Amino acid sequence: MPSVPSVLFVDQSGQLGGAEFALLQLAGSCTARSEVLLLSDGPFRARLEAHGARVQVINDARVAGIARQASGLNCLRVVPGILRQVRAIAAHARTFDVLFLNTQKALVLGALGKLLHRKPVIWYQHDILTREHFGRVQLSVIKWLVRFAVDHVVANSQASKRSLIALTGIAADSVPVIYNGIDADAFKRIDGSDMAALRRQLGLPEHAWLAGLFGRLAPWKGQHIALEAMARLPGVHLVLVGAPLFGEDAYAQRLHEQAEALGVADRVHFAGFQDDVPAWMKAMDVVLHTSTEPEPFGRVIVEGMAAARPVIAAAAGGVTEIVRHQRNGWLVKPGDVAALADAIGALRTDPAMAQRLADQALVDAQTEFSVDQYLQRMMQAIGRAAR
Ligand code: UDP
């Protein structure tokens, strides 16, 4: 077998979430002999192609519509579609050395076809596998597939890994943790020295004190918590960067209504989805992370650190593996509005402390979460799977 195995990457989403950005770097680094199979079309496809990846889309609207909390009955209705996709993925996989599954549905559909393709299966686990995020049926399916049809699992954090071990009982030393890598150079390229000019270019108020919250609009990402904190912080502006990617439009609408009801709408800027996250992050005085459920990893946190901004993050899940309280950032209890407002206030009134945290954050982002390290460790894992 050649030293670089050929890989079929499978991802269920056409949208750009954290798992997709992680795959973008990986698939973009081994384009010569690999291919990406997407189970839905969307902007992710064009981004992959721009990175030189070969992409195919096999979409089945009914399978794509199965929710994470779906009941067994709902799953039964789509069995024919599931079988078609299992066969299609297996047929593709046969011509590659390794099958790399990047999301939950990719795991289920790719691993179910193990007897058809007989290729080594590696799963990059981006989720915390608990009842907060998944239905009983999904967790049982994952448990049995991991035991019997997946050859290697790589977890994106210790928190994700712990949930996997608790669910499946597989040996802890068989699951390496490989953190996402963040391209610090993309942040260095943004000139933040003339803040007013940068903000003008982005359509943001030039002289306001800005707190930025990045990520898709979804209840568990806690944008409503940040809005409530704004009501306690006169003079502070909140910039929400992100869109409802997976049908959370009602929540997005509620956020607008909440901002009006709290009387903070003139200080809240809904920016929608933005491609140039480094520029938007550099335009902020502080970067917030407000997830109310344990975050499996949280790329946005490391990105805030790479932007050399002080980051306030909700202390749960993988976040506590990234942020050390008052060393390279600030941790608050998830969902605690008062604690979040106090933390923002503390950083606002002490710019020297905010700068000290941001300086350390930049060093940590560069040394602990580099893209080089991420790619090297991932290619080693893929190489091991191929043997
Ligand atoms: N992101 C983006 N544009 C936006 C909002 C978010 O490109 O408008 C990116 C963000 O920079 C990060 C990713 O989406 O790289 C979100 O990843 P994270 O791990 O924070 O959350 P997930 O999507 O995995 O829940």
TrEMBL record:
<dbReference type="GO" id="GO:0102710">
    <property type="term" value="F:D-inositol-3-phosphate glycosyltransferase activity"/>
</dbReference>
<feature type="domain" description="Glycosyltransferase subfamily 4-like N-terminal">
    <location>
        <begin position="17"/>
        <end position="185"/>
    </location>
</feature>
<feature type="domain" description="Glycosyl transferase family 1">
    <location>
        <begin position="197"/>
        <end position="361"/>
    </location>
</feature>
<dbReference type="InterPro" id="IPR028098">
    <property type="entry name" value="Glyco_trans_4-like_N"/>
</dbReference>
<dbReference type="Pfam" id="PF13439">
    <property type="entry name" value="Glyco_transf_4"/>
</dbReference>
<dbReference type="Pfam" id="PF00534">
    <property type="entry name" value="Glycos_transf_1"/>
</dbReference>
<protein>
    <submittedName>
        <fullName>D-inositol-3-phosphate glycosyltransferase</fullName>
        <ecNumber>2.4.1.250</ecNumber>
    </submittedName>
</protein>
<keyword id="KW-0808">Transferase</keyword>
<dbReference type="InterPro" id="IPR001296">
    <property type="entry name" value="Glyco_trans_1"/>
</dbReference>
<keyword id="KW-0328">Glycosyltransferase</keyword>
